[in-house]
Amino acid sequence: METINKTKSKTNSKSKPKAVCCHCKDIEKKAKHRLKINILLCDDCKKLDKYNLLTKTYAKTTYFLEDEDIQNLNFIKAKSTYGMSTYFTLEDIKNIFCNKYAIDNNNEIENKIKELNDIKEKIQEEKKSKRMSKNDKNIMRREKLFNALHKVGLVLRDDSKLCENYINGETKKIKIKDIVKRMCQMKYLFEYCHMDECKQKALEEQRETLEAWYFPDCYVFDEAERMALNEYSYGEYPEIYPWIIQEQTHDKPNKPVKKSKNKNKI
Ligand SMILES: [Zn+2]
Known about the structure:
The chain is mainly alpha-helical. The chain has helices at residues 56-62, 67-70, 90-100, 108-151, 161-167, 176-192, 195-211, 220-232, 242-249; strands at residues 31-34, 39-42, 53-55, 76-80, 83-89. 48% of the residues lie in helices and 9% in strands.
């Protein structure tokens, strides 16, 4: 391999004027051009609060400031890893912070930030435990409802709005026994009283009523419920539901009226 030995000629090199730090003006220190603020600074001076830049987001989150606290501050727009960012000097941010939290000594800043962080953490923990306990309550209500339904031979249906609202604590005024009662009625209507057909019939009747320019005097569902009970259950719900009788006697069921799938969300 051939080695090329190059000797740099120094004869033509013109010495550049030395970059001097704008702040300390110490010619011994190497200064660099700081792009964002467009001045020459040495490594020591660039750390000073008046040259140290913080992004807006960092300043707000670290120093517990809101937009209105910093709206009148001088800022620099410059590129960051995330695109264009707004920068403030640490000096300005610290001043704003001291004003906002009534601190007159710069040394107290760290303590105050620690105090604010502790408060923030405490609030977050409280929120978390509140969420947890809400979740626990839901689990408890679900179990209670599941057991209550199970006692009367029903399963907890995922498609039931009524059950869902109870579990989520949205129907505080409705007692569990009323929900169980209604769920029994629904099973009875749909599985023993041809509720789907009755709904269809009620819907047609209401359509006819509307076409004749009258307003129906009740909801389709209520009308269908009345129809189903009248036609298949002597106008009322039984005292003991057929599936409970079956369970109690362990006998073959009396032939129920044709089963229909409950597609209705209640
Ligand atoms: Zn300097």
